[in-house]
Amino acid sequence: MGRGRLEIIAESLIEWVIRLCGISAIIFIFAIFLFVFKEGAEFLFNELDLTEFFFSKEWYPTSGYNKRYGVLALIVGTGSVTILAMLIAVPFGLGAAVFISEFCGPRLKESLKILIELLAAIPSVVWGFIGLTVINQLIIHVFNAPVGLNILNGGIILALMSVPIIVSIGEDALKAVPDSYREAAVAMGATRWQLIRRVLLPAAKNGLLAAALLGVGRAVGETMAVLMATGHSVNMPNSVLDSVRTLTATIAAELGEAPVNSDHYQVLFIIGLLLFSITFVVNMTADLIVRGVRKK
Amino acid sequence: MSSVESKSNPKGSGVRRFAESAGIRRKFRQEAMVKWLLAGATGMMLVPLILIIAYLVFKALPILSVGFLLDNPVKGMREGGVWAPFVGTMYLIVISLAIAAPIGVLAAVYLNEYAREGWFTRIINLAVINLAGVPSIVHALFGLGAFVLFAGLGRSVLAASLTLAIMTLPVIIASTKEALASVPMSFRQACWNVGATRWQTIRHIVLPNSISGILTGIILQVSRAAGETAPIMFTGAVFFKKVQQGDMFPYGLLDQCMALSMHLFTISTQVPGVPMELPYGTAVVLLATVLLVNICSIVLRVYLRSRKKW
């Protein structure tokens, strides 16, 4: 129908390009795994003692005679900051999600959502700088601590950083609860609080859980902010006012100095692999939970 | 319930005042309390944000000027402005965008227009979600392993932009997919009915009708790329690079560059004796860049939603 051969060829070429781009995400996720794995593989299989790696708190990667690659203290560092951040962010985030979804008029809702979007846009290095200056001084004043760069500081920063994702996913989950549920509860004479506690929270349970999980994923993977705000000392913490060091911050701080293909360099890639696996599992779980909701 | 059972009647006029019985009042009190509690939770996140930004701007005021933006850092980064890192950030934004935008948009076109819902699209979607969740420092490791070492690009603007592009790809895919999905099916059917092929339909009907939504996503990608530090630290950004005063295009594709985010990290943690206005000023310039870009995206979205035809 007047279409030249060239056009047909061009079109099928374009379709192939589109197909290729379509699977690009799969290609990249595999490539990330492969390249990070490749750089650390030699040391992982030949020399690394996995028991020591996971259960020793001795991290002396640059020591001259007694090199030790134990990441327990780093895992505890990441864990403690993440847990504190979630203790702050989950109640506030879900509370805000309920407020935005159930108590706001459309105008206020729209403005709050825009503000939260802007909160999410603040770069992590700026958060780190805020931790280093503002929150550092606050902690020194309030707790009379010698330094304010510690778990508490990192936890507050990470909480503020992961709240936007918790709010937006949580709000989606509440929005997905059919209005007929609300109408039925209101018709029975339930107050808004009864409606939230007895109807909405149980109905949106999985979505809210997924929101919290995605917050965890965000907090575990955050690098610059915790590098700047947690004090960066390898340490098994006793209180929230102790400095710690996280998995991510260790890579960021030490990769520049580790000679390519040295043991130290490879161990940093193995830590990267560990981080990749943690966030992979967290994201997969969150997705499975959300899918479960949608099927219902 | 309780209002009917309630015998107490404050007015005592014999008329049952429904709204004023004790049970109802308790309910109203409880409801108001819950409302304020939740509003408080929302405020507790947003008020600090506004206070902190105000504080940063206040601290940076003495140094903020056009000169601060146009001057290069001098004297071991203890004086001068942010021109060299600012241009570096612009380089990274433009090049990473040039890589990520076409791939991301076409990936979304594939997901929304070509692929049939099924296990395969499910895997692609999972990959997109996971790609968005990969920690930025792992992206840095990947960029170092793949682009800097394996592809032999060295630490360069190109390697850093490629790393940023892959990192921000999910943002573009997700928002473009949403934009494409909002184009009504009847538009496509009308086009097919006059004999257009799939690609012609996409090219002439679907893309023009969703261009605004696609733009919003692309703008968001820009804001992410501008702020990231970890992925460019080991792939192309350096602490310091000498740049001629007023040079608009100081970096080549295979040169290393400075970047605003990296510069803020450097002068606030790595260099001793920097006067405090400098990092505050740098933080405000970075924050302003990112927030301005975001506000553009929001304004565009609100405007376009208000004049949507269908």
Question: What topology does this entry show?
Answer:
The complex is a heterodimer of chains A (296) and B (310).
Chain A: H1 5-22, H2 24-46, H3 50-55, E1 59-60, E2 68-69, H4 72-103, H5 106-121, H6 124-143, H7 151-175, H8 179-187, H9 192-203, H10 205-221, H11 224-229, H12 247-254, H13 263-295
Antiparallel strand pairs in A: 1-2
Helix pairs in contact in A: 2-13, 4-7, 4-10, 5-7, 6-7, 7-10, 8-9, 10-13, 12-13
Chain B: H1 2-5, H2 22-60, H3 66-70, E1 73-74, E2 79-80, H4 83-114, H5 119-133, H6 136-150, H7 157-181, H8 185-193, H9 198-227, H10 230-233, H11 260-270, H12 277-306
Antiparallel strand pairs in B: 1-2
Helix pairs in contact in B: 2-12, 4-7, 4-9, 4-11, 5-7, 6-7, 7-9, 8-9, 9-12, 11-12
Question: Can you describe what's shown?
Answer:
- The complex is a heterodimer of chains A (296) and B (310).
- By secondary structure, chain A is mostly helical.
- A two-stranded antiparallel sheet of chain A has the order 1-2.
- The model of chain A has no long low-confidence stretch (mean pLDDT 90).
- The longest helix of chain A is centred in the C-terminal third of the chain and has 33 residues, at 263-295.
- Chain A has 13 helices and two strands.
- With 310 residues, chain B is an all-alpha fold.
- Chain B has a single domain (76-306), classed as MetI-like (MetI-like fold, Orthogonal Bundle).
- Chain B is 71% helix and 1% strand.
- Chain B is built from twelve helices and two strands; from the N terminus they run αααββααααααααα.
- Chain B has helices at residues 2-5, 22-60, 66-70, 83-114, 119-133, 136-150, 157-181, 185-193, 198-227, 230-233, 260-270, 277-306; strands at 73-74, 79-80.
- A two-stranded antiparallel ribbon of chain B has the order 1-2.
- Chain B is globular.
- The chains are: A mainly alpha (296), B mainly alpha (310).
- At the A-B interface, helix 1, helix 2, helix 4, helix 5 and helix 6 of A face helix 2, helix 4, helix 5, helix 6 and helix 7 of B.
